[in-house]
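Here is an idea for our session: we take a single protein and study its fold together. To get us started, please write out a protein record for me. Start from the sequence, derive the backbone structure tokens from it, and show both lines together. Go ahead whenever you are ready, and we will take it from there:
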Amino acid sequence: MMKKEGECVLENETLFALDIGTRSVVGVLLSKEGTGYVVKDWYVKEHEERAMVDGQIHDIPAVSRVIEIVTQHLSDKHGPLSSVCVAAAGRALKTETASKEITLSGKKSLTRQDVLHFEMEAVQEAQKRVADRYDEVSKHYLCVGYSVLHYELDGDEIGSLLDQRGDIAKVSVIATFLPRVVVDSLTAALDRCHLQMEALTLEPIAAIQVLIPTSMRRLNVALVDIGAGTSDIAITNGGTVVAYGMVPVAGDEMTERFSDAFLLDFPEAEAQKRRLSTEDELTFTDILGVESTVAKEDILLELQPAVDHLASAIAKEIISLNQQRSPKAVMLVGGGSLTPNLKDSLAEKLSLPKQRVAVRDTSAIADLTLPEQFPKGPAFVTPIGIAIASHQSPVQYVSVTVNEQPVRLFELRKQTVADCLLASGLSFSKLHGKPGMGLFVTVNGIATTLPGGFGEPPYLTKNGQPCQYDDVVQNGDILVAVPGEAGKSAVRTIRDLLPSKTQSFRVRWQGKWETIEPVVKQNGRFTNLEAPLQDRDEIEIQYLESVRDLCGKFKQEDYLAQCQPFHCTIDERDTYLPGVNRQVTVNGKVATLDTTIKEGDDVEFTSYSPVTVKRLAERKQWTLAIGISVMFQGKQIRIEEATLEVWRDGERLGKDEEIHHGDRLRTKVLQAETCTFLFQDVFRYVDIEIPQQGGKTFQLLQNGAKATFTSVLADGDVLEIQWTPKLPLRNM
């Protein structure tokens, strides 16, 4: 029969697959019959020495000897075997998270290609981190898949960056890589046995291929292959495998705990552990020669801490790979999946119902016929899966040319232009045109960067035709990536530093419309908003927002003191007199100097009224003097006696003298607020003129009656002084 492209079929229609594990090598022979598969034979051979560590072949000759034994055993029964299907161990996969942040200010909305380029930069950063961890070159790792953990825009998580605009965008990815050396060492080990690698797959893919058909991969399911030294994890969602992972904890953890608890050497502990699934009590002899019979329940109690530790490690990795949430269900395969109580413990750690975590064995593989004596446990799911997966969807090489350099990569999935550029080692950050030179300035003491123009994306062609990052490539394609042009240097004015709402506004100031703009200084000198910015400029911007700010702009600083609540110190005590000076109104309502002014506001000030001693006394309800009013010689006279004096800096102030904001005053009480006024007190307020023709004698009258200088006066009295006419001289 003619071999179809991509099928692993030997001359006798038999599929030969090897599961090269850490502890053993499992060989299986399957034949394709109709729509199903039939297991014809199998053979298992354990390594005699520690030739493999965590899925990586460390001793190629030693591993080759075991492979040769398995191959020879099956060849002796079924004829020569020259081609084989193998799998790269899931535990060899390296998973890394990485983030990439870019500035979007001034950029148009993001396109699909912008987002892909952005994601690949993050994947390349993850690839570099993996390589740095193992002190290797990043090109030594093949990306077998990545998933976006989340996007962020201006610090907030967002569902998609497509067509978004903002200042800062960020993407976080989880990417999985396969070391090229894993494949190279597999090839070398097979070459020593004269076997040709007919097809390659990944162990997690192999198990998923037979247990989770494509129709089920839209569900968010985790598959865990628990071996001896490690537990391999794969996650499906949205119709594909979205993530791979591994934890360095597995069945040996239980064996070590068994060994420590009952003083057994490791091989004996492993043998006894396997009997737990079928026997209710175990009898064994420890290293001291003491024979013991222990109930299964007691053994499980001793093993439970190790079981919980394994479940916790697996659950933590599943949640990490699955974007920080539990999947809908978990399938367990591999010999370690039979660990007692593991299934229930894992369900608890993932907060899943117990029925959502299940152990799957070879009986769950559809369209598979097994010999009666074939082991039906979960340990043989992966070996059979390798054979079937390699036959149905083998991983093959894809050879392309990138910028005249050959690139060879495994087709673990549909390869895209982006995958080829990544495998070639081209830097995605350098492919995109560099941003133009920005400006670094300081605004009010805060460092600010004004980016230059955005660089152009690279110009990509496939076989001479323009292409995009997500275009699928075929074997032999010729790719060319021309870096995009650099962006233009930043050209900005001071106005560009201001939010639009603070650039300018109009107000009516004292009846006249005025345009208000911020006051700016450039390197210490006053300038305007249209002044061009230079790198390293120091800019000071004073936003004029309040009545106080506008008073300074219009050089009416005297209003600032006049509009403040009047303050002075009286007898060492602070005194405030609001509303005694000038007042400001905004849109007809009384305001303060700190009232915010906005577009269209009408600002007016009332006239200024100074504070005198008399006004202060009225506000403080002081009595400066007491007195009465009388009529003297037909004129109104006010007679007063001071009761309180006000002093400033050693000087007595009159009642009409002005008091200034901030003055320090002292008061002096002279007498009680009662007083007796006499007729003679009138003469302090009037000047007496003696008639030239009259006499020098006079008569004092109080309300028409005779009075004396000491007559007591009352408010409203009418007072007079009558001069006696001069008598003529007598003749002698």
